Amino acid sequence: MKGLKRLNTEVRFTSMIQIFNKKTYDGPGFYIGRPMPGLRGSILLSPFKITKYVGREESIDRYRDYFEERMETSSDFRATVKALAHIAVKDMLILICWCTPLNCHGSVIRDYIQYHTETLNGRWFKCQD
Question: Which has fewest Cβ within 10 Å: 1, 69, 73, 122?
Fold first, then answer.
């Protein structure tokens, strides 16, 4: 799992993973954001808010490290990512957040799933919980 920061962007991905903005999209998908009125927070939410002191890229970098740590230490987190990967292998996976089209933690989730389902041909399913 190490090296998530340096994924090869030249790899051609064949699975369909899309990230849609909750403000403009009301269809099916998996919400990856914080709790909001009428929405439960996702296990995959980013605890790193963008502030005047913490910019977007720093927030995403922090989430990337957090994501890797949670994949190693939380079976619930890992099971959620694995379930999403199974969807992505068979069908379109739609992640829903508030940031897109701006870069956000959703791209970390998308890139991880794409890398592990396509570059490694799903082998990680066999070695994870």
Answer: 73
Residue 16 and residue 117: Cα distance in Å, rounded? 11
Burial of 90 from C-beta contacts in 10 A (0-12 / 13-18 / 19+): exposed
Residues 6 or more apart in contact with residue 121 via CB below 8 angstroms: none
pTM: 0.81
Which secondary-structure segment (H or E) carries 95? strand 93-97
**Distance between CA atoms of residues 11 and 74, nearest Å:** 28
CB 50 within 8 A of CB 59: yes
Q: How many domains does the chain have?
A: 1
With helix as H, strand as E and coil as C, how does 68-79 read? HHHHHHCHHHHH
For 60-104, how does the pLDDT look when each residue is reduced to its tens digit (9 = 90+)? 999 999 999 999 999 999 999 999 998 998 889 999 999 999 999
If 0-12 CB within 10 Å is exposed, 13-18 middle and 19+ buried, where does residue 110 land? buried
Which residue range forms the structural domain that includes residue 77? 4-127
